[in-house]
Design brief:
This protein has about 130 residues and is mostly helical. About 85% of the residues lie in helices and about 0% in strands.
Protein backbone atom coordinates (compact mmCIF):
# COMPACT_ATOMS: atom_id res chain seq x y z
CA UNK A 1 0.00 0.00 0.00
CA UNK A 2 2.94 2.33 0.69
CA UNK A 3 4.14 2.12 -2.93
CA UNK A 4 0.62 2.80 -4.22
CA UNK A 5 0.46 5.99 -2.19
CA UNK A 6 3.84 7.08 -3.57
CA UNK A 7 2.61 6.34 -7.10
CA UNK A 8 -0.52 8.42 -6.61
CA UNK A 9 1.56 11.26 -5.13
CA UNK A 10 3.96 11.12 -8.08
CA UNK A 11 1.08 11.28 -10.58
CA UNK A 12 -0.50 14.18 -8.69
CA UNK A 13 2.77 16.13 -8.51
CA UNK A 14 3.59 15.59 -12.17
CA UNK A 15 0.01 16.36 -13.17
CA UNK A 16 -0.08 19.59 -11.19
CA UNK A 17 3.18 20.82 -12.72
CA UNK A 18 2.11 19.84 -16.24
CA UNK A 19 -1.34 21.40 -15.90
CA UNK A 20 0.05 24.68 -14.58
CA UNK A 21 2.64 24.82 -17.35
CA UNK A 22 -0.02 23.97 -19.92
CA UNK A 23 -2.31 26.74 -18.66
CA UNK A 24 0.52 29.27 -18.76
CA UNK A 25 1.54 28.30 -22.28
CA UNK A 26 -2.07 28.42 -23.48
CA UNK A 27 -2.44 31.95 -22.14
CA UNK A 28 0.73 33.06 -23.91
CA UNK A 29 -0.28 31.71 -27.32
CA UNK A 30 -2.47 33.21 -30.03
CA UNK A 31 -6.23 33.02 -29.54
CA UNK A 32 -7.45 32.76 -33.15
CA UNK A 33 -6.27 30.93 -36.25
CA UNK A 34 -3.90 27.99 -36.38
CA UNK A 35 -3.60 26.51 -32.83
CA UNK A 36 0.21 26.58 -32.84
CA UNK A 37 0.51 26.56 -29.04
CA UNK A 38 -1.45 23.34 -28.63
CA UNK A 39 0.42 21.73 -31.52
CA UNK A 40 3.81 22.71 -30.10
CA UNK A 41 2.96 21.64 -26.55
CA UNK A 42 1.47 18.33 -27.72
CA UNK A 43 4.52 17.53 -29.87
CA UNK A 44 6.91 18.52 -27.09
CA UNK A 45 4.98 16.38 -24.61
CA UNK A 46 4.96 13.51 -27.09
CA UNK A 47 8.74 13.70 -27.45
CA UNK A 48 9.14 13.77 -23.68
CA UNK A 49 6.76 10.83 -23.22
CA UNK A 50 8.60 8.82 -25.88
CA UNK A 51 11.90 9.65 -24.19
CA UNK A 52 10.66 8.62 -20.75
CA UNK A 53 9.25 5.36 -22.14
CA UNK A 54 12.49 4.60 -23.97
CA UNK A 55 14.69 5.40 -20.99
CA UNK A 56 12.57 3.27 -18.67
CA UNK A 57 12.56 0.39 -21.16
CA UNK A 58 16.33 0.44 -21.56
CA UNK A 59 17.20 1.44 -18.00
CA UNK A 60 14.78 -0.59 -15.83
CA UNK A 61 16.65 0.14 -12.58
CA UNK A 62 15.51 3.73 -12.47
CA UNK A 63 13.22 4.73 -9.58
CA UNK A 64 9.72 3.23 -9.73
CA UNK A 65 8.09 6.66 -9.32
CA UNK A 66 9.65 8.12 -12.50
CA UNK A 67 7.03 6.69 -14.87
CA UNK A 68 3.99 7.86 -12.87
CA UNK A 69 5.56 11.29 -12.26
CA UNK A 70 6.87 12.07 -15.75
CA UNK A 71 4.79 9.93 -18.13
CA UNK A 72 1.38 9.66 -16.49
CA UNK A 73 1.32 12.88 -14.47
CA UNK A 74 3.37 15.49 -16.32
CA UNK A 75 3.00 14.32 -19.93
CA UNK A 76 -0.60 13.30 -19.38
CA UNK A 77 -1.55 16.76 -18.17
CA UNK A 78 0.55 18.93 -20.46
CA UNK A 79 -0.52 17.17 -23.65
CA UNK A 80 -4.18 17.20 -24.46
CA UNK A 81 -6.11 15.37 -27.12
CA UNK A 82 -9.34 17.00 -26.01
CA UNK A 83 -8.05 20.55 -26.53
CA UNK A 84 -6.89 19.57 -30.01
CA UNK A 85 -10.39 18.29 -30.78
CA UNK A 86 -12.12 21.38 -29.42
CA UNK A 87 -9.80 23.66 -31.38
CA UNK A 88 -10.56 21.70 -34.57
CA UNK A 89 -14.30 22.12 -33.93
CA UNK A 90 -13.82 25.86 -33.33
CA UNK A 91 -11.90 26.15 -36.61
CA UNK A 92 -14.74 24.36 -38.40
CA UNK A 93 -17.35 26.56 -36.71
CA UNK A 94 -15.39 29.62 -37.85
CA UNK A 95 -15.53 28.45 -41.47
CA UNK A 96 -11.99 27.03 -41.59
CA UNK A 97 -12.82 23.35 -42.08
CA UNK A 98 -9.80 22.78 -44.32
CA UNK A 99 -7.51 24.27 -41.69
CA UNK A 100 -9.13 22.04 -39.05
CA UNK A 101 -8.52 18.90 -41.09
CA UNK A 102 -4.92 19.89 -41.84
CA UNK A 103 -4.39 20.70 -38.14
CA UNK A 104 -5.61 17.26 -37.09
CA UNK A 105 -3.55 15.46 -39.73
CA UNK A 106 -0.41 17.46 -38.91
CA UNK A 107 -0.89 16.88 -35.18
CA UNK A 108 -1.11 13.11 -35.55
CA UNK A 109 1.52 12.77 -38.29
CA UNK A 110 4.11 14.99 -36.59
CA UNK A 111 3.39 13.33 -33.24
CA UNK A 112 4.02 9.86 -34.68
CA UNK A 113 7.16 11.05 -36.46
CA UNK A 114 8.36 12.64 -33.21
CA UNK A 115 7.88 9.37 -31.30
CA UNK A 116 9.74 7.37 -33.92
CA UNK A 117 12.60 9.88 -34.13
CA UNK A 118 12.91 10.10 -30.35
CA UNK A 119 13.00 6.33 -29.93
CA UNK A 120 15.53 5.95 -32.74
CA UNK A 121 17.77 8.62 -31.25
CA UNK A 122 17.57 7.22 -27.74
CA UNK A 123 18.12 3.66 -28.93
CA UNK A 124 21.42 4.86 -30.40
CA UNK A 125 22.36 6.75 -27.25
CA UNK A 126 21.17 4.26 -24.61
CA UNK A 127 21.51 0.84 -26.19
Amino acid sequence: MKQRGATVAAIAAGGAIGALLRAGLSEAGPVHGWPITTLAVNIGGTVLLAAVAAVLAWRPRLPHWLHPLAAVGFCGSITTFSTMQVEAVVLMRDGMSGTAVVYLIVSVAVGLAAVMATRRLLRTVLA
